[in-house]
Amino acid sequence: MRKRSLSGIKPTGTIHIGNYFGAIKQFVDLQDNYDSYIFIADFHAITTVQNKEILSSNILNIAMDYLACGLDPEKVCLFKQSDLSEVTEIAWYFNCITTMPYLERATAYKDARVKAKDINVGLFDYPILMAADILIQDADIVPVGLDQKQHVEYARDIAIKFNNTFGQTFKLPEPLILKEVAIVPGTDGRKMSKNYGNTIPLFGTNEQIKKAVMGIVTDSKSPADPKDPEECNIYAIHKLFLKGDDLENLEKRYRDGGLGYKESKDMLYQEIISFIEPMRNKRNYYENHIDEVKEILKKGALKAKQNTSEKMKIIRNNVGVNL
Hints:
This protein is mainly α and 323 residues long. It has two domains: 4-184 and 290-319, HUPs (Rossmann fold, 3-Layer(aba) Sandwich); 204-283, Tyrosyl-Transfer RNA Synthetase, CATH 1.10.240.10. Helix content is 56%, strand content 7%. α4 crosses α8, α8 crosses α9 and α11 packs across α13 (261-287). The relative contact order is 0.14.
């Protein structure tokens, strides 16, 4: 039997090239070699998105994005997190064996505390629900960005504590991180994130993409000046789209001088547009066939539910709530 892979993305807005290269591309690459389960993390999204129309729209949009990027519903089980009520039940069991000081060590919680005084319980409890997502499916690997590795470590710790408390129940998942794209740089050089406002939208209009590319932060060197490509934010994104001789030639032009940042940005814009055109066409198809998207999610939920239903019998029996 093939190993099982599981991961997901929150439906909190328009996806960007950081989402694609840091996560979705891995999902597509893995679907031929793993028993792949990909979920839309709508429960997680409610920590920040608390508007019915926006959340529903985001869920459908992220599903279309997944499909447009190459996920094959014949190979991948694509489903909504909220269609598996079992994850919230397991999260409660995990809450009862997890201490608050342990959760307070979570990087995401610490970051949130810096930005806001009031943190809702859902955000504080985020690692618990994520552990439930992972462990209920008996995932062997979890493809994540480098910044998400701690969540998999939390899942492993919680699985160990549950097993020690109630008896052997869960396997220990491993994070799968592709180091070369573990953190995709944004237009300001920091990690590409909607929170930083430094993203390049994957399915934005040409105008939106061009505006983002032209806004990439650079130094004040003139076109004639030689430049170190490894210190250039534009070049860092070029590396996602160019390989082999094309990338070597661009690097040489940087080091030799004569390449201005404006020209480099124009080149990057064209690379992005050419890269996403096939995905755009596929997404347009799903936009005109929304019922097909909903049916894919429904079938995925039924398949995922088969696994969770059997697993829940074991979990409830081990906890002691089955009489």
